[in-house]
Structures are given as C-alpha cells and as structure tokens.
Write a structure and sequence with these properties.
alpha+beta; Multidrug-efflux Transporter 1 Regulator Bmrr, Chain A; globular; 214 residues; 29% helix; single chain
C-alpha cells in the first residue's frame, strides 16, 4: 500500500543584506530574518490615506534624522514603509476581508506602520531621532511613536504587482505555497511598500506580501 506523500523540507534562506531581503523576484521565497529595530505607530480602521497622513511625518522624520546623524561614519538609506495588518476578531477569512461586505467589516481592522532603522544606529541617536519625530506629530499621535525590536524569524513572501485591492489572488498563492511546504501561517499579515502608497499608477505598484510561518 502506498504511503502518504512526503513533503520536501523547505530551505529558509538567510539574506545577506536588506537589499537581498527585498529583492523583487518571481515566486514565493522562504527566508529566516534577524530581529530589526523599527520606528512604529499604530492605527485602526480601513487603509485610508486620511488616517495615514497625520502619522507619516513622525515615521519619516525619525528615519531621515537617523540617516543624517549617521552619515559621518556610515552611508545608510531610509527603508520602505511597512505595515502589519490584523483584525480584532482574529478573522483570516479572505471572503470577509475582500468580499462585498468588506467596508462594513473594516472597523475591526488594526494596523501598525513602521520603518526599519539602521543596525549601526546607537541608542542615543535613536532617542534623539524619535524626539524629532514626535515633535512633528499632533500630541494625540506623538505618544504612540516608538521604537521596538521586531523579530519575525521564519517567513514566506511574494511580490504583488498592481493595486492593493487586487492582493487577494497573490495572498492565496502565498498561503497555498505555505500549506504545500507543510507549514502554517502565524502572526500578522505584513506588507512592504516598494514605493509611496497613494502615489503613482495603481497598476505599477509593487508590494511585498509577507507571512510569518511555523
């Protein structure tokens, strides 16, 4: 009697640089990532530019302040904007998220926007940069701007081309690859925006969709 099909183990690649981690390639990639320090700020509700706008100055002021603080000893770049997405009820049902009732259900959405910070930055430099970032924010948002260590570990990711509203098929492909490797999603849906959200032609947008796995 034939035995059960054997699932070949997945090789988790450890990128040698941030550029290698974010390289735009076809297909699903499995990687093991190191912890990173990131400047973060939270929000809730649908992905509305009006909700993002008052928070963005804090993120970018912090990131650019660090870049200039470090330029005398190391050349760095400001990384792309990233976002973590989840729901208060824990749903991962794509019909609920992308279906016709998605607008009414988006009051359960929560998100964290963030930018990764250079490894070379010292604690004092980070504290000074965050202070400058908070000074650019309304007091209602300033207290929420913070730096945290972000450790995803093992992940699967894929590049999505086109509008954010058409991500469903790409997410399904990502999750199918995860299941095919004998793994399961864990943690929060992660998006990395290789461009500036809201700018440029929607059909030309590039977004890395990432899912921690276990």
């Amino acid at each position: 009697m034939a035995g059960a099909a054997t699932i070949a183990p997945v090789e988790f690649v450890r990128p040698t640089s941030r550029d290698a981690e974010l390289k735009s390639v076809a297909g699903v990639r499995f990687m093991e990532l190191p912890p990173r320090r990131c400047v973060m700020i939270d929000g809730e509700g649908p992905p509305d530019p009006a909700a993002f706008a008052p928070r963005m100055p804090g993120l970018y002021t912090t990131a650019w302040s660090l870049r200039f603080a470090l330029k005398s000893r190391v050349v760095t770049r400001v990384g792309p904007l990233e976002g973590l997405w989840w729901t208060t009820d824990g749903t991962t049902d794509l019909d609920a998220i992308f279906g016709p009732d998605r607008v009414t259900g988006r009051d359960t959405w929560r998100w964290t926007l963030f930018i990764a910070l250079p490894d070379e930055a010292r604690e004092g430099e980070i504290e000074a940069a965050v202070s400058r970032g908070r000074a650019k924010l309304d007091p209602a948002f300033a207290a929420g701007l913070r730096v945290e260590s972000f450790d995803e570990g093992r992940v699967a990711q894929v590049l999505h081309l086109g509008p954010y509203a058409t991500e469903r098929a790409t997410i399904e492909r990502l999750h199918a690859a995860i299941a095919g490797a004998g793994l399961r999603p864990r943690g929060r849906h992660h998006e990395i925006y290789l461009g500036i959200p809201g700018k440029g032609a929607p059909e030309k947008l590039k977004t890395i969709l990432r899912q921690p796995v276990g």
